[in-house]
Amino acid sequence: MVQERTLPKFDTASAQITKDEGLMLYEDMVLGRFFEDKCAEMYYRGKMFGFVHLYNGQEAVSSGVIKAMRPGEDFVSSTYRDHVHALSAGVPAREVMAELFGKATGCSKGRGGSMHMFSAEHGLLGGYAFVAEGIPVAAGAAFQSKYRREVLGDPKADQVTACFFGDGAANNGQFFETLNMAALWKLPIIFVVENNKWAIGMAHERATSQPEIYKKASVFNMVGVEVDGMDVLAVHSVAQEAVARARAGEGPTLIEALTYRFRGHSLADPDELRTKAEKEFWFSRDPIKKLAAYMVEQNLASEEELKAIDKKIQDVIDEAVEFAESSPEPDPSELYRFIFAEDE
């Protein structure tokens, strides 16, 4: 069977998106797609090492959620598929690329690599290699925001945390424990399940007794929302509502975004388990092409304007590679730096 669940419908007329908002979302998704395509090229050319998990196909989730938040103020917790989350959060492409090259100019000083992007400046709490590892970390970030505001009396402490994880993580104990605490304490957090149907090689429907993950929110008296993760306008709309609830002190939201990765689990995955029919079903729902078509149909942008953005982003990616290649390796004398906090 190609598709077990019907993608939820979204009334695009209700989006009321402006031209600037549409172009912003389009540019961010194109940045993610072009960046990941270049990563694949660089990996196969031997410029990157280790595991590299690409985000192609899922761009609407990252852009839709993170662009509904305050850049540099709110927090984002990622997974091992973290490059595009970092880009959406505002980490410069050159710093993300340099990190993938293991260079000292990378956002984690060349020490994190593909799976451990981090940037305090941009509120990126890190990529996490262990499944569900980032969920309790995100809850901690949300807790400190609430504590600083309600106990320490800091009116500026109204940050919201977005926690991204995959469908496989929703079967992990940390998922249930953290959702329970978040609901009890009404933490300002959004749990975003990127359900791309596969946990490495395990089909989602075979791995859980309740495939509709968003329904699990009801157990914790939490708002649960299902959304078409291939429609950035739909994702952006539910994310804006969730952010508003969290910032108003109304507690967490569980968003299940039905999406699909266009490549294998990692660049080392031959991707032989997924059927051709399944892939074609999802390829036809490319979120970037969908938004581009909508923008043109609604006279919000011309094809020339969109092509200009494509060209602009390609230049950004090319510059990022040049920067990464020309950057220095971490100095061996600093091998033990950044392990412990340092005095300023």
Can you tell me about this structure?
With 344 residues, the protein is an alpha/beta fold. The chain has a single domain (18-323), classed as Rossmann fold, CATH 3.40.50. The chain has helices spanning 19-44, 59-66, 83-88, 93-100, 134-150, 173-185, 204-207, 232-247, 276-283, 287-297, 303-326, and strands spanning 75-77, 161-166, 189-195, 198-199, 202-203, 223-228, 253-258. The protein has a five-stranded parallel β-sheet, sandwiched between helices. The protein has a two-stranded antiparallel ribbon with strand order 4-5. The termini are far apart.
Q: What distance separates the N and C termini?
A: 58 Å
Largest sheet: 5 strands, parallel
Tell me the strand percentage band: 5-15%
Q: How are the strands ordered across the major sheet?
A: 1-2-3-7-6
Summed over residues and divided by their number, the pLDDT gives a mean of 95
Task: Tell the overall outline.
Answer: globular
- The proportion of residues forming helix, as a percent range, comes to 40-55%
Number of domain units: 1
Count of DSSP strands = 7
The CATH architecture designation is: 3-Layer(aba) Sandwich
The low-pLDDT segments are none
Regarding quaternary structure, how should these chains be classified? single chain
